[in-house]
Design a protein that fits this description.
Layout lengths: L8 H13 L2 H13 L5 H23 L5 H9 L1 H33 L6 H18 L1 H16 L26 H6 L1 H7 L18 H27 L9 H8 L1 E2 L3 E2 L2 H30 L9 H15 L3 H40 L1
Antiparallel strand pairs: 1-2
Length: 363
């Protein structure tokens, strides 16, 4: 195994939570409200189905091949050629996802806070910091997540200060347009929940592997509850105006004003955004580097961290040249791209493995 470090199942969960939600908190309410209107809060509930399936597939493959991740056991299931092709697909997806994630982070910071700072500077500093962390190994990433993920979660509790300003009637009428718009709106959040499959890269490195499934389900529950909580707060505060806001959560934080002394809390959102994006980008870059090294059967992944970090910067600038292009990607490409790589391919591997075992027993 290329990775010699060990982490706990709890540390794995701390890495997975921001991996799914770091960008989701800011843009998902707008994307889901475009389809589901005032029922967009339900989209978070429906993601639990995709989450359970994703976790089941990841854990089941790990149980069949305990010391390997999907890059390794795919070569044993479908052969060397197709297995390496699977590795290439995972590498391309994860390095593209690294570039996408860092571009989303940089766009938010530049548009709302660092107006005059070149976006290349914002992107480069984050990728450099992430690259040092990934090169230090999985244990460093796990410890960082334990520190930063609570910082990522805590600012959400300040949204409770908006309770006096909320209009709970905005939730009515429920399902006035039927269930179809809700299903359309849930496409993007379901796709992002598929990123829980990244646990396949952490399960072989757990010091307590018997707790992998338990903590996977726990983090899924936390993700679903967080989605529903934020969506309801935004719905009660903004109502039908949610779809017109680029960052509705930022609007909510700016709306907080308690006793004329607790206000302008968007700085908390910035802190939340930075640490959450740091953990998310670290996981994506780690998966990209590990997929690259294992597909090529290299002896060490660390020498390739900084070159692939530079490649992620190129992806973030050339592949997504504008914020409009970024929004189009989230609405129309991501709902198909992410599940195809992180859910469909692993399910096919599990089905093929099962069929092979049945045929072997019959012989």
């Amino acid at each position: 195994m290329l990775e010699k470090g060990r982490i706990s199942a709890f540390q794995m969960a701390m890495m997975l939570y921001p991996t799914v939600l770091a960008t989701g908190f800011l843009v998902l309410p707008t994307i889901t409200a475009e389809y589901a209107q005032n029922d967009f809060w339900m989209t978070g509930l429906l993601t639990i189905i995709t989450g359970f399936v994703t976790i089941y597939v990841a854990v089941r493959l790990h149980e069949l091949y305990p010391n390997e991740n999907v890059i390794q056991h795919s070569q044993r299931i479908v052969g060397t050629t197709l297995g390496r092709l699977t590795g290439v697909i995972f590498f391309l997806y994860s390095i593209h996802g690294t570039g996408t994630s860092v571009r989303v982070y940089a766009e938010f910071v530049k548009i709302n806070f660092l107006f005059k700072t070149p976006i290349l500077m914002i992107i480069s500093t984050m990728v450099l910091l992430v690259s040092f962390t990934v090169r230090a190994g999985l244990e460093t990433m796990g410890r960082s997540a334990v520190i930063f993920t609570p910082v990522f979660i805590t600012p959400l509790l300040f949204l409770l200060l908006l309770i006096p300003d909320l209009d709970f009637r905005n939730i009515l009428p429920v399902l006035s347009h039927g269930i179809v718009p809700v299903l359309q709106g849930t496409a993007t959040p379901q796709a992002w929940v598929s990123e829980l499959f990244f646990m396949t890269f952490f399960l072989p490195c757990l010091s307590d592997p018997d707790k992998g499934r338990t903590w996977g389900n726990r983090v899924l529950g936390a993700i679903v509850l967080s989605m529903v909580f934020v969506s309801l707060i935004i719905l009660f505060l903004l109502g039908s105006d949610t779809v017109d806001k680029t960052y509705p959560v930022l609007v909510a934080f700016r709306y907080i004003n308690t006793g004329d002394f607790l206000e302008n809390l968007e700085a908390l959102l910035l802190a939340m955004w930075i640490v959450g994006s740091f953990v998310k980008i670290s996981v994506f870059l780690y998966v990209a580097v590990l997929s690259f090294a294992q597909t090529l059967r290299l002896s060490d992944y660390r020498p390739f961290v900084f070159p692939l970090g530079f490649l992620a910067i190129l992806f973030s600038l050339w592949d997504l040249p504008s914020y409009v292009r970024l929004g189009t990607h989230f609405r129309y490409a991501a709902p198909f791209e992410i599940p195809a790589v992180l859910l469909l391919i692993p399910m096919l591997l599990l089905i093929i493995d099962r069929l092979r075992r049945i045929m072997t027993k019959r012989r």
